[in-house]
Amino acid sequence: MSEVDFLPSVLILLASSIVVVVLLHKLKTNPVLGYLVAGAIINAYGLVKEPEYAHSLAEFGIVFLLFIIGLELSFDRLIKMRLHVFGFGGLQVILTSSVIAFVLHKFFNFSTSISVVVGGALALSSTAIVLQVISEAGRQSSQVGRLSLSVLLMQDLAVVPLLAVMPLLADKNDHIMQVIGISGLKALGVIAVITVFGRLFLRPFFSLVASVKTDEVYVTTALLIVLGAAYTTSMLGLSSAMGAFIAGILIAETEYRNQIEDSIHPFQGLFLGLFFLSVGMSIDVEFIKEKYKAVLLAAFALIFIKATIILILCKLFRLRWGATVHSALLLSQGSEFAFILFNLAASKGIIDAKTSEFMLMAVAVSMGITPLLAMIGSKIEDRLDSEEELDSNKEFKGISDLSDHVIIAGFGRVGRIVAYMLNREQMNYIAVESNARIVKKARQQGFPVFQGEVSDTNTLQALGIKRAKAMILTMSDRVTLRKATKKVTVNYKNVRIISRAEDYKHSKDIRKLGAESAIPERIEVGLQLGGVALENLDSVKHNILAIKEEIRKNNYSKIEENELFKC
Questions:
Q1: Residue 49 contacts by C-beta under 8 Å, 6 or more apart in sequence?
Q2: Own/partner pairs for 233-236, CB < 8 Å, 24+ apart?
Q3: DSSP symbols for 389-454
Q4: Cα-flanking dihedrals φ and ψ of residue 332, to 5°?
Q5: Mean pLDDT over residues 402-406, rounded?
Q6: pTM of the predicted model, to two decimals?
Q7: How many Cα atoms are found within 13 Å in the side-chain-facing hemisphere of 562?
Q8: How many CB atoms sit inside 10 A of residue 195's CB?
Q9: pLDDT in tens, 301-347
Q10: How far is 454 from 408, CA to CA, in rounded Å?
């Protein structure tokens, strides 16, 4: 075989990826369904002569996806969200798996072990689709957004044992608990070794890499870590994706997480797209034509079961009705991990190819209608929860689960920028704004903004200030800033205050009232203008940062000493 014989297949796959991404982006729809359809078309017309190349490349997509998920799972974050991650999320996975497993075993004669694993695969929701829908709606910090993220984190954790158990079921062993026990002990041993090794050597290694001070080296480092961890677990008889997942968790504990995540994202998107294309290439179009009624029925049965269980759990956890319905509809689809697990099960002979294909099509349909279900859920939430703002405990609706959150006071342009930055770092926040027009517009865009006066005691209590970590005052009005700072520092000493200020003198006054930091906007504008000017005049970036930090040092105290600023 010529060394370039594989290129036509790769070129067709890459061209298909571009078409799908561009087309579905224009339609504002998640591209997963488009990849599946494109793969089915490629298969139907025999456009790719060597499909094994696509399948080989596609395996990397799963490795990178699990690595990115691991990066989101720092131990500190899991602890803060433990009630909803392990409580709500754990119950959702267990109950949904159990119900689906019972149906499969009772009515379709699946063995107990296979029913449990298939039930576990169908209990998962689509991380890629749900997070995109939430992000597009701007609801990351809403109660629905926080709950969805918690449930998805628990489901992502559940993928690891499912991937480990699946190969061990190839012998048709029906003793599922014994299989899980053996697999679990083996996995724990590997995790312990990788964790110890990572904690001992990861930080020194990253410190060495960071000393080079070039972005390119992070790309190479990310690839080395992901593929090295995947290869290690694969050689030890476990899933390669498990190694990537563990590596992601370890890096999430370091200060280099953002650089690594930015470096690996392009590879993850490319290979994950190829994975879904390869899944689509395994679809038998004629089979789907014959079974389309059964596929649709199975898809809606899956949505109904999952939505019902999530709805019940939401009410047990005392979520308001609008958020309950929205969450149930948003999380009711199948997961991209179902494609991995069912393909693996079919390749190992655990389930037959036709059954695998049927279930995959049902999952694909459920994923395809998720944007519509999410839109319906959003409208229901807005209608049900628009009338009453306060819960019975006198807090604003949807914040009872919040702790260590940030309160943004004022939601004009400055407040929105702060909210954007907090979202980027996945920090929970809520905002309060006195202007009803701004509040209405922001709420329509999905932001967790409430109307009230930040200097009012009842408003502060409704914001859950006793559980808050910090308050950021973004208003320009001096009187409001002064009153709010004084009120919070006197009554809620646990809350850090970071405030906006006009100039150095105003900043000093606000800090005297108890604010931890007060940022003088006139000085900061000067710093930014001066910095850009120096950069355009070819000054060294390090020197520009040093000048800025010198002025900012000790709350801008340098300014008070310098006659230049006294005017």
A1: 8, 9
A2: 233/190, 233/194, 236/186, 236/190
A3: -B-TTSSBTT-TT--S-EEEE--SHHHHHHHHHHHHTT--EEEEES-HHHHHHHHHTT--EEES-T
A4: -90, -5
A5: 85
A6: 0.73
A7: 9
A8: 13
A9: 999 999 999 999 998 988 888 889 999 999 999 988 888 888 888 88
A10: 9
Q: What sign has the CA pseudo-torsion 124, 126, 127, 130?
A: negative
Neighbours of 87 (CB within 10 A): 16
pLDDT of residue 498: 93
CA–CA gap between residue 65 and residue 33 (Å, rounded):
17
In this structure, the number of other CB atoms found within 10 A of the CB of residue 378 comes to 21
What Cα–Cα distance (Å) separates residue 285 from each residue in 54, 212, 301?
19, 52, 22
β-bridge partners, 498: 472, 517
| Three-class DSSP labels, 295-359 | HHHHHHHHHHHHHHHHHHHHHHCCCCHHHHHHHHHHCCCCCHHHHHHHHHHHHCCCCCHHHHHHH
Residues 216 and 12: their CA atoms lie apart, in Å, by 29
Contact between 123 and 306 under an 8 Å Cβ cutoff? The reply is yes
Q: Does residue 469 contact residue 406 with C-beta atoms inside 8 Å? A: yes
What mean pLDDT value characterizes the chain?
Answer: 81
Tokens of 272: 């994950």
User: pLDDT tens for residues 343-371?
Assistant: 888 887 888 888 888 888 888 888 878 87
Q: Which one, of 155, 178, 152, 156, lies nearest residue 165 by Cα?
A: 178
SS3 500: strand
Alpha helices (H) along 445-564? 457-462, 478-491, 504-512, 521-536, 541-561
Structure tokens at 314: 């939401």
DSSP 127-177: HHHHHHHHHHHT-TTSHHHHHHHHHHHHHHHHHHHHHHHGGGGTT----HH
> What is the residue whose two structure tokens read 């048709």?
172
**pLDDT reading at 1 higher than 50:** no
CA gap 257, 262 in Å, rounded: 9
The H-assigned helical ranges of 166-284 are 176-210, 216-235, 240-252, 257-281
Query: Tokens representing 13?
Result: 């796959």
Residue 14 has pLDDT above 90, yes or no: no
| Cα 127 to the center of its chain, rounded Å | 7
* Contacts (Cβ under 8 Å, ≥6 apart) of 563: none
Does residue 158 register a pLDDT over 60?
Answer: yes
Question: Would you state the pLDDT for residue 389?
Answer: 55
| Model pLDDT, residue 176 | 53
